Amino acid sequence: MNEKSMINDLTKGPIFGRMIKFMMPMMAANALQVGFNLVDMYFVGKYAGTDALSAVSIAGQLTMLMFSLFLGVAVCGQIYVAQVVGLGRREELNKVIGNVVFLSIVVGAFLMLIIPLGIPILRIMNTPDEIIQPTYVYLVILSSVNVLVALYNGLSGILRGMGDSRRPMLFVMVATVINIGLDYLFICVFKWGVVGAAWATLIGQSAAAIFSIVYLYIKREEFGFDFKMSSLKPDAKILNILLKIGVPVAAKQLAINLSMLFVNAQINGFGVLAVAVTGVSNKLIQLMTIVSQAMNDATASFVGQNMAAGKFDRVRRSVYDSVGFCMIFAVVICALFLLFPEQIFGIFSSDPEVIAQAPGYLQVSCTLVVSFALMSPMLGLINGVGDTVLNMIIAIADGVIGRIALSLIFGYACGMGALGFYLGHCLAGYISVIWGGAYFLRGRWEKRTALMK
Question: What digits encode the pLDDT tens for the residues 174-183?
Answer without folding.
Answer: 888 898 899 9
